[in-house]
Specification:
The structure holds two protein chains of two kinds. Chain A is mainly alpha-helical. Chain A has helices at residues 2-24, 29-56, 72-98, 105-126, 133-151, 157-188, 200-207, 212-230, 238-245, 248-277, 279-301, 307-328, 331-361, 373-376, 378-392, 398-413, 416-442, 454-477, 484-490; strands spanning 63-64, 69-70. Chain A has a domain at 279-493. In chain A, strands 1-2 form a two-stranded antiparallel ribbon. In chain A, α3 (72-98) runs antiparallel to α4 (105-126), α5 packs antiparallel against α10 and α11 runs parallel beside α17. The relative contact order of chain A is 0.09. By secondary structure, chain B is mostly helical. In chain B, α1 (3-18) packs antiparallel against α2 (22-42). The longest helix of chain B has 29 residues, at 164-192. The chains are: A mainly alpha, B mainly alpha. Chains A and B meet through α5, α6, α8 and α9 of A and α5, α6 and α7 of B.
Chain lengths: 493, 206
């Protein structure tokens, strides 16, 4: 099995690159779409198998290579990235067909879209596999170029502004993180120039001997820099605009795959450096980002926002929950974190995919919240209902269980005020989202009914698959606390 | 790296904050990048082969980035003047304050000289100041460069140097980002008729 894993580690990130090259060979827009869609479905298989194998061997020590690491926590993120990537590729042709082509013409614009999309996805697949902080930084920075072009893909002024803001803020943030990495390298180096100094296990092994002040300064700079890319408030300013303006399949990839993947790197760093910087520093830094993110997001969840902008602020809320789970450093919170990443990924991407038919049949959703979808189309209403119900944390969604686990971990780890505040903010967020859910499904309808089932068939299939997967995740979530997977991260049974 | 050269690098960063015209600021920052590359090359005698390759890479990156910025400026002449920016003293004052605060906050972390540590931190702070106080979007691109130059100062002042693969990765990412930023610069100018970032604020409200 180990040999197979070593092969899959190389194949998984390369497969989308091969599909990108194949798209370039397409002779017309329809062919390019077909290659992109079905090629992506095939390209997701190695990553899915790799993720599944990593979970199967969760009780064993992580498997490592020159630059890569296959472990159970990374597997959750890898599975999320590969499922969301393949689903986004499946939805992309429907969005591309309804949007005007750029000056490059239909085929030219398809090539730009698919190549940028697939390179962005390929880099994201590699992030959870990175064994080394330096390599992880290079991969995260490499996602910026392709994803910034995708955010601005429509060419509208607002999209250009959103793409530019995303490019500048995240790049500057990552530069600050890089400064922290150089500082950490210098602090941890013992004379030889070796990339291995920044390996997660090497950092963990040396952490106890590092000078506290430079290690803490480096840690703060790296996490603060990564926070700009992970969308943690108060350095989240690019997030609402980029999620609103990007094509819906790209918004799904940004929200459900990119943000958690960056959070994973911050999490791995905190696990490695706890002996150097202390548990309190980790708790205060990540707890601060988590609570500020929740506090910034919740008021927006109460406002009548356009559909995609509402989902963007929901991403801010859920990234805040993930930051809190990292802050608490408790086995229950760790179980909640892993469950949250998968559950949020499925529900959020479904919400973004629903945008494609939603804007076709209820164009007003581009300016205000959706209304009365149950009487407009049941398939679309089902997708919006499953997405919003899950994101609000309504039982029996996995996010209800994950948030409960994270709060329980927070109360067990302390300080209690942090968990009390988080619980209050989550309750307020739930009420805001629940209101949108009720209005969205049962309010006064507007727009036009689909003339045939064909227009909403795809979203209906995706909603059904997501609902089944989310319920299965809830059931599996009950077994997560105390499992080998959580034990592998925390070292506690 | 000599203290005089480090001072020159920091001074060119302040010069970019002060410069009225984007082209002058670009000339200062690209000179800073080239100067840093030359400084790194001058340090190669007596160092490892890996350091020599990294220094060459730094110089190559400087030449590539200078070319991209020059092309962006040449193709991006603006028809509309920018709105009044904050005054020279305000800009410089903000940059100096940011530099002093950051230099005071960052503890010693073990580079070959304290001067290199301070210069690296000062350049990162200058980059943040450039983004905060300057409106033309070209300054955001220049800010990447100044910040990356700060990191390069730290990287060449590490005993034994950073691993080559990290240097190469950083250089690749930077060139890619500057390339994408140049594309945005052109498209924003075409869409808005200006590269004044204050004109864009509030446009993205999906």
């Amino acid at each position: 099995m180990d040999d197979l894993i070593a092969v899959l580690v190389l194949v998984a990130p390369l497969a989308p690159v091969v599909v990108a090259l194949a798209v370039l060979a397409g002779t017309d827009a329809t062919t390019a779409d077909r290659i992109g869609r079905w090629g992506s479905a095939a390209a997701a298989v190695p990553a899915l198998v790799l993720g599944a194998l990593a979970l199967v061997r969760a009780g064993d020590p992580p498997l490592t290579g020159s630059w890569w690491l296959v472990d159970a926590p990374g597997a959750f993120f890898l599975l999320t990235v590969s499922v969301v990537g393949a689903a986004s590729a499946a939805v992309s042709p429907a969005w591309l067909r309804t949007n005007p082509s750029s000056r490059a013409g239909a085929l030219g614009s398809r090539r730009v879209y698919w190549v940028a999309f697939l390179l962005f996805w390929a880099t994201l697949v590699a992030v959870p596999l990175a064994r080394n902080l330096g390599v992880a930084w290079i991969l995260i920075e490499a996602t910026t170029a392709a994803s910034a072009l995708l955010v601005a893909f429509s060419g509208k002024r607002s999209a250009l502004e959103a793409g530019w803001k995303y490019l500048v803020l995240t790049s500057l943030g990552l530069t600050v993180a890089l400064f922290g990495i150089v500082m950490l390298y210098v602090t941890a180096a013992t004379g030889e120039a070796s990339l291995a100094i920044l390996d997660w296990d090497a950092l963990g092994a040396r952490a106890g001997a590092l000078d506290h002040d430079p290690a803490l300064a480096a840690f703060v700079l790296i996490v603060a820099g990564l926070a700009t890319k992970a969308g943690w408030a108060p350095v989240h300013n690019w997030l609402p605009d980029a999620h609103s303006e990007a094509p819906p399949p790209v918004s799904a990839l940004l929200s459900a795959a990119l943000l958690p993947a960056v959070a994973l790197i911050a999490w791995r760093l905190s696990l490695a450096l706890v002996p150097a910087v202390g548990e309190d520093a980790v708790r205060m830094l990540f707890g601060g980002f988590g609570l500020v993110s929740l506090a910034v997001a919740v008021p927006f969840l109460w406002r009548p926002l356009p559909w995609k902008r509402l989902l963007a602020y929901s991403s801010l809320e859920h990234m805040g929950v993930i930051a809190l789970a990292i802050a608490f450093q408790h086995p229950l919170a760790t179980a909640g974190l892993l469950l949250h990443v998968l559950g949020h990924g499925l529900a959020k991407s479904l919400g973004f995919y629903a945008t494609v038919p939603l804007l076709r049949y209820q164009p007003s959703a581009a300016r205000r919240p959706p209304r009365g979808l149950a009487s407009l189309d049941r398939g679309l209403a089902g997708a919006v209902g499953v997405s919003l119900g899950t994101l609000s944390g309504l039982p029996p969604s996995p996010l209800f269980l994950s948030e409960l686990l994270i709060l329980a971990g927070g109360f067990a780890a302390g300080p209690a005020w942090m968990s009390v505040l988080a619980a209050a903010l989550l309750a307020l967020g739930f009420l805001g989202m629940a209101h949108v859910l009720v209005e969205g499904l049962a309010g006064r309808p507007s727009g036009r009914r689909p003339s045939s089932r064909r227009g909403t068939r795809q979203i209906q299939v995706l909603a059904t698959a997501a609902a089944v997967a989310l319920l299965a995740l809830t059931v599996a979530g009950y077994a997560l606390p105390g499992s080998d997977i959580v034990r592998a991260v925390t070292g506690v049974a | 790296m000599s203290t005089a050269l480090l001072w020159l690098l920091v001074a060119s960063g302040f010069g970019a904050v002060a410069a009225r015209r984007p082209a002058v600021a670009a000339a200062l920052v690209t000179s800073q990048t080239l100067l840093l590359g030359a400084g790194a090359l001058a340090m190669t005698p007596g160092r490892s082969g890996e350091f020599a390759v990294a220094a060459t890479l730094l110089m190559l990156k400087a030449v590539l980035v200078t070319t991209i910025v020059a092309l962006a400026i040449r193709r991006g002449r603006e028809s509309r003047p920018h709105a009044d920016e904050s005054g020279l003293l305000v800009r410089l004052g903000a940059a100096v304050a940011l530099v002093l605060v950051l230099v005071a906050l960052v503890p010693e972390y073990g580079l070959e000289s304290i001067a290199a540590e301070r210069a690296a931190t000062a350049l990162i702070a200058t980059a943040l100041a450039l983004v905060l106080v300057r409106r033309p979007i070209l300054f955001a691109v220049l800010a990447f460069l100044v910040a990356e130059n700060g990191i390069a100062v730290a990287a060449v002042s590490v005993s034994g140097a950073l691993p080559l693969i990290v240097e190469a990765g950083i250089a690749f990412d930077l060139v890619l980002l500057i390339g994408v930023a140049a594309i945005f610069h052109r498209r924003i100018l075409a869409a808005f008729g200006t590269t004044d970032s204050s004109v864009m604020q509030g446009g993205a409200r999906g």
